[in-house]
Write a structure and sequence with these properties.
The structure is a homodimer. In chain A, about 50% of the residues lie in helices and about 10% in strands. Chain A has a six-stranded parallel beta sheet with strand order 3-2-1-4-5-6, with helices on both faces. In chain A, helix 11 links the parallel strand 5 and strand 6. At the A-B interface, helix 3, helix 4 and helix 14 of A face helix 3, helix 4 and helix 14 of B.
Chain lengths: ~325, ~325
């Protein structure tokens, strides 16, 4: 039998009704199938600015990307709090923040350019920039592997990056823009309608060229999205499992799976966010979120929150007594 | 302003878009409102047998109640694994297992009688037995308070106790039996239909007397359900918050709220189980589950699993930087 069937068979010997641990049994079987018998956790957060921010698609000014990176570095952001609580050290990657950042111990300070280009008028990235961003992510994966991590939450920060994620989702899934475009950090009705109008123009501009995953990512993505895509590809090749977070990191995962379908088995969906496109993208990837807490923050927060659930699934698999060892009677034949 | 509004106002100063932590913000505000500024966790599991088991309403033989208590005491059950992982020591209460149990350090071995009476023919408990079971739960709450716990997962073990929970749910909510009666530990279609037929006869027998919460609990509950009801009442009076677990502990919470509505603010719903009546009962109580992982095990497992989410909510509330302290720009006026 296939390895997963053997792991399922072990789950059926444990002192609980068949299947009574629900999704935890799926998670335990996936972890065992991947060979993850102890979990060494970390979080990686990729930051960059977006040229499309100039079109007024976000409730926050673009300088917030850089300000939030500084907040990450001083330990005051939500991802820092959760990473401390759940023992998953945070690594920050400057993939292309618009203004220069000083070096810091937990920062990989390697911006590829000061923000992506404005995709309303040109591809977000040149071919060289796309390759550099993918390579940056792959280097980060090598670092993660060298440090011995095997379960990593993938997060991001980038003002206007839900706009990129909506464009990517529409292009990858064939869905219309309206159902995949949300309110990001908090747009009102008029600003939301403007965001959709900008996205309609973006897609009209690039449509004839959106024929491969590389071109979709290059034209509609961003520096942190491409770096996350490279990171996911690299981690899977190093046998590191990934917990994807919200709409933007899931868009990167969808690009990675489009480029290399075998990546899929290394993915866990940490949560389902309030961004409407996230649900559509998770369904497109055939991933079931572990948590649904109506979050919409990014940074990897929903991914780190799912870590104790994965640890619980693994502990139950390895530590529960069996019906035989505990002397518990089996179900009566019905 | 009311205290909760002040806590909400603090959440709005933290470095995240307004409301972006979703349900975590609700949980943080509730914890602050209750004065829970550090969490001292435990789990309490109440076990008893049920006379109605004689009617063939469970997939497992009744001796499994006792066998699983022994499994709890030797540390091999799911609740033990999760309690160790999440630092919530387990306390086991024998409220009325049918066969005598030897004493053990983590066992309160005070059975009120060897299982409840068969509610198909008579009330599950006499008035004296109901009062003893409620008092047992209240004593456990005093013990929990003396030990300094302030956040407790409430779980149970008792073969046939989903039958009691379905009867209680129908009586408390006025819903028909079919939508509130599930497959418990794994009934097939015929056994499920039989369980519903037994429950129809049970309700027909007791209907004229189901006029107060006490009588509903006495006639249709069970020793562990009544002890949990007393425990929930006692904990709330000691200002201890409770995480209720699955269908049966939620039925006890519904009885407690029917007896003393002010208990409600001390309740968190750990998860939503696969038992169809659980969703109905949570809606009746106006409680939103923290997790939805398709579990149906009981023992307090879904409640302990929610603990890291509550700890996360509290840590975010207390540790995140504010827009001012971190020098992050606020949202642009839209």
């Amino acid at each position: 039998p296939a390895p997963e069937a053997l792991f399922r068979a072990h789950l059926d010997t444990l002192t609980k009704p068949l299947g009574a641990l629900g999704r935890l049994e799926d998670l335990a079987a996936q972890l065992q199938t991947l060979g993850l018998t102890d979990l060494r956790k970390a979080a990686w957060v990729f930051a960059a600015d977006h040229g499309i921010a100039a079109e007024g698609v976000s409730a926050y000014p673009a300088e917030v990307t850089r300000q939030m990176v500084l907040n990450f570095l001083s330990g005051g952001a939500a991802i820092n709090v959760l990473s401390r609580l759940h023992n998953a050290p945070v690594h920050i990657v400057n993939a292309g923040v618009a203004t220069a950042l000083d070096s810091a111990p937990t920062l990989r300070n390697t911006p590829i350019r000061p923000g992506s280009r404005n995709m309303l008028h040109e591809p977000a990235l040149s071919e060289a920039e796309l390759n550099e961003a993918l390579a940056l992510g792959i280097e980060c994966a090598a670092e993660a592997s060298a440090k011995g991590f095997n379960l990593i939450a993938v997060g991001e920060m980038g003002i206007a990056n839900t706009t990129a994620a909506s464009a990517l989702t529409a292009a990858l899934t064939g869905r219309a823009l309206y159902p995949v475009t949300g309110r990001g950090t908090g747009l009102d009705d008029a600003a939301h309608a403007h965001k959709i109008a900008v996205l309609e123009a973006v897609l009209a501009h690039h449509e004839p060229h959106l024929t491969t995953p590389e071109e979709i990512l290059r034209r509609l993505g961003g520096l942190e999205v491409a770096a996350m895509t490279g990171f996911i590809l690299g981690c899977a090749s190093h046998r590191i499992a990934l917990i994807i977070d919200g709409f933007i990191s899931t868009a990167a995962a969808a690009c990675a799976v489009a480029l290399a379908p075998q990546v899929h088995s290394w993915l866990f969906a940490g949560h389902q966010s309030q961004e409407p496109g996230h649900r559509i993208l998770l369904a497109h990837l055939n991933l079931t979120p572990i948590l649904t807490l109506d979050m919409r923050l990014g940074e990897g927060t929903g991914a780190v929150l799912a870590m104790p659930i994965l640890e619980s699934a693994l502990a139950l698999y390895t530590q529960m007594a069996t019906f035989t060892s505990a002397g518990v009677s089996a179900a009566t034949a019905l």
